[in-house]
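=== RUN LOG ===
request id: a7f3
mode: sequence -> structure
chains: 1
length: 158
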Amino acid sequence: MRLIVLLIASGYLFVACNNAATHSASADSTKTIAAYKPGFGEFMSGIQVHHAKLWFAGINQNWPLADFEINEIKESIDNLKLYQQARVETKYLGMIDGPLDSVAHSINNKDEAGFRKNFLFLTNTCNNCHHEVNFEFNKVKIPDTPPFSNQDFSPAKQ
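=== RESULT ===
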């Protein structure tokens, strides 16, 4: 009988200790996730993809997709301002607001000619910003090919 009680007590002790270790590992994992801060380049790479997708959505007059992509760019800019406050480059991000608004206006009006003009304005502003922060070697252009071969940029059939 004493052996059974000892085995049961050992089992409870094992479970309790294991549970504490699991809780500690979980807390460490949560701290690591909370401390993770994406780098400036990670955000910019995402913006570059959305910039290219925005172009192909706009020239194909897929206005819902173009609206989605412009908002993804704006969200990334907002996240840069949030997570990269200490970077000098972050102070220059405001220069993109006007061009983004111009492109969004063209999208809302379903104006392809205006979209093309304002997209060029946006692209040139990106390059002007890169120049201002001594990253002029990162020159953005109007894309020649879509960034993904598995996406159809034509508008959805109604």
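=== NOTES ===
Helices lie at 2-35, 40-59, 63-83, 97-108, 112-132.
The CA atoms of residues 106 and 145 lie 22 Å apart.
=== END ===
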